[in-house]
Amino acid sequence: MTHTAHLWLYLVFLFGIIALPGMDMAYVLGNTLTGGQRRGLAALAGIVVGGVGHTVLALLGVGAVIHAAPGLFNAMLLAGAAYLAWIGWSLMQSASPLALGAPARSTSPAAAFARGVAVCLMNPKAYLFMLAVFPQFLRPEYGPIAVQATVLGAMTAAVQTAVYSAVVLAASGARDWLAGSGRSQVVLARGVGLLLIGGAAWSAWSAWRG
Predict the structure, then answer these.
(1) With CB atoms 3.0 to 4.6 Å apart as the test, which of 32, 85, 110, 142 could cross-link to 40 if both were Cys?
(2) Quick one: CA torsion of 47, 53, 54, 60, rounded to 10 degrees?
(3) Would you kindly state where each structural domain of the chain is located, as residue ranges?
(4) Rounded to the nearest 5 degrees, what angle is found at the Cα of 81, between the Cα atoms of 208 and 120?
(5) pTM of structure
(6) Within 10 Å of residue 101's Cβ, how many Cβ atoms?
(7) C-alpha distances out from residue 116 to 7, 42, 128, Å
(8) Which residues contact 155 (CB under 8 A, 6 or more apart)?
């Protein structure tokens, strides 16, 4: 396989992982619905920086350490599952996603950015990707590992930006309509809440099996 084909394959895996609804997408969506496009973009930027952090951690071999001590990874999965379930439950109990207290309406873009970094860094799906997929695309025959990791990290940031920008634009466009449709808000809140609780259950099951 040529290096170009190798990178295209990584791009396909990457898009599939990022496009699946999860903690990062829910965080960007929630901030856009509650705070508008500006705060949604700030949350997006935080998620992207967190993704860069995952790349750095993978390059430093933290993934190998977690793999050698699965108890640490399982604890992280359980913590992430609990956080995801809490967000989902909050949505299920809310009459409107525009009235959610987390993230609060008063949250500044700077705070949304900082929390976005934290949400991404504690996302179990990201660690699973870095443990199971990312190392497979670091090949000695394609040059220095650090350079390869930088390229893959840049691709990750680009795909995150593209996918979550679409989420911000869609949520921003729907925000005004949702504000005037109480029933639609309830349906959306419960649907997203169920999705996140399902993701939390999957993460907890993965930790228990591990």
Answers:
(1) 32
(2) 180
(3) 3-209
(4) 125
(5) 0.73
(6) 10
(7) 27, 8, 19
(8) 7, 10, 11, 14
CA distance 210 to 195: 23
Question: Tens digits of per-residue pLDDT, 73-121?
Answer: 667 667 767 766 776 676 676 555 444 434 444 568 898 899 889 888 8
CA–CA separation, 61 and 33 (whole Å):
37
In SS3 terms, 137-172 reads as: HCCHHHCCHHHHHHHHHHHHHHHHHHHHHHHHHHHH
pLDDT at 67: 62
